[in-house]
Write a structure and sequence with these properties.
The complex is a heterodimer. Chain A is of the alpha/beta class. Helices cover 21% and strands 27% of the residues of chain A. Classes of the chains: A alpha/beta, B alpha/beta. At the A-B interface, α4, α5 and α6 of A face α2 and α3 of B.
Chain lengths: 220, 177
């Protein structure tokens, strides 16, 4: 059984209005071919869960500029004036989440936990509408898990069955979102035969990856 | 020496051998250049690396090796990379000795506001709330007239920047060996 799928067919399987987790930090470690194809097919009304919206025209910033996003759950939009403009104009709903809390909410969603207790945000506007618990004399916020219908993961290396390894700071949210979505698409910079990635080098085991985006044939 | 360089040099004096330190974007980034390479100080970037350093020369940048602002960095021998959950585990879990952040305002209790002015400036908190909550020491590095952020609306009503954490400032300038 092969997991490979052409990028166009992968994106055809994502209905408008879907909730997507997308890897990357300021575009580093974001699945660029999947993002470009979402723009090409004009998949709109999306809810995106991701660390940031990069810059206009870069990675997730392309989805913002193309006005495909209805709702963002993210930690930082300061580097993308277009995200801020659409938010203040009312066309884009933005839920700002502290970065460590975002990572833990996704981890909770993927690891079967009912939420996480964090001290981050206590005494700030982030606390509003949330339960607080006192544990051994210290106050924590109860933050709920996040899951998505689709995760769009970027890897440095994948093998033929979908084991993944990431490179340096391109890892960021990718292994977390690969655990927290119903369907996981992995786009890899390189695809190698099974056995090239040693078991100790695998960061996301193949059982988590539903589809591996096929390489495009290159000339020359 | 300009104001920012002076502040960065002063902050560098607070860092101790063996410290794990996170530098925020802007003025705090200048601190790294004020620390000798053999000082035994490790810089974390919250996008997933301990041991970051400046790119040695143009042309040696790597697409997958960047700081939290998305700018190219390099890595010291002995560096380690990790995912975002572990990165914030370092920050929240008491493993980070010092965080150096920029700010919009600091009040008389030392509480920092650096992530939003309602209706005016909404960058989001990024990692700042976790850093201020979790780091052993918090150092705010800013000039007294930080780039003229508007804190009044058109009617002249004061718009308070939202506080980043309820924690006040620390005053403990000694190195523990």
């Amino acid at each position: 059984m092969t997991k490979t799928i052409r990028v166009a067919n992968a994106v055809e399987a994502i209905p408008p209005g879907s909730t997507l987790m997308i890897g990357g930090f300021m575009g580093v470690g974001s699945p660029i071919r999947l993002i470009d194809e979402l723009v090409r097919q004009g998949k709109n009304d999306l809810t995106i869960i991701a660390n940031d919206t990069a810059r206009p025209g870069v990675a997730i910033g392309k989805l913002i500029v193309a006005r495909l996003v209805r709702r963002m759950i993210t930690s930082h939009i300061g580097t993308n004036p277009e995200t801020q403009r659409q938010m203040l104009a009312g066309g884009l709903e933005v839920e700002l989440v502290p970065q460590g809390t975002l990572a833990e909410r996704i981890r909770a969603g993927g690891h079967g936990l009912g939420g996480v207790l964090t001290p981050t945000g206590v005494g700030t506007t982030v606390e509003q509408g949330k339960r607080t618990l006192e544990i051994d004399g210290r106050i924590f916020l109860l933050e709920k898990p996040l899951r998505a219908e689709f995760a769009l993961v970027n890897a440095r290396r994948a093998d033929h069955i979908g084991n993944l390894a990431y490179a340096m700071t391109a890892r960021n949210f990718n292994p977390l979102i690969a655990m927290a979505a119903d369907v996981v698409f992995a786009e890899s910079q390189e695809i190698v035969p099974v056995g090239v990635l040693a078991p100790d080098d695998v960061m996301t085991p193949a059982v988590l990856v539903d589809f591996l985006i096929a390489r495009e044939r290159r000339n020359g | 020496m300009d104001d920012k360089t002076l502040i960065a040099r002063r902050v560098a004096l607070e860092l101790c051998p063996g410290n794990l330190v996170n530098l925020g974007i802007g003025l705090p980034t200048l601190v790294a250049a004020m620390v000798p390479r053999d000082a035994g100080i490790f810089f974390q970037s919250e996008n997933g690396i301990i041991g970051m350093q400046a790119v040695a020369e143009e042309g040696l940048e790597a697409d997958d090796l960047t700081d939290a602002g998305g700018n190219p960095i390099s890595a010291l021998p002995g560096s380690a990379t990790f995912d975002s959950a572990m990165s914030f585990g370092f920050i929240r879990g008491g493993h980070l000795d010092v965080t150096v952040l920029g700010g919009l305002q600091v009040d008389r209790l030392g509480r920092l506001a650096n992530w939003m002015v309602p209706g005016v400036l909404v960058p989001g908190m990024g990692g700042a709330m976790d850093l201020v909550t979790g780091a052993r020491r918090v150092i705010v590095a800013m000039t007294h007239t930080a780039r003229g952020v508007r804190t009044e609306d058109r009617r002249g009503v004061y718009l308070a920047p939202h506080v980043t954490a309820s924690r006040g400032s620390d005053r403990d300038g000694t190195c523990r060996h």
